[in-house]
Write a structure and sequence with these properties.
Length: 83
Amino acid sequence: MKEKKFKIFRSKSGRTIYRWTLECPKCKKIWEIDLEKSRWCIEASGLTISCECGFDCVVGSKDLEIACITDSIESNRNAKDVM
């Protein structure tokens, strides 16, 4: 099965990334994830966050590709500090 990436449209916090607006690559639904509270969040390291689709259409854990629009590169590096 080909691994899919989530597209991240924007973050909704300041320098530390907690909330993301995402588009599932399979069902194309838009959803938000709060990395402090989400039951789907598994790990955060570097520029990759492992997570499942909030609509349960993706089986298993998939990598979220961080393509931050509103936050700086330094904020992306701080993503690992979320967990």
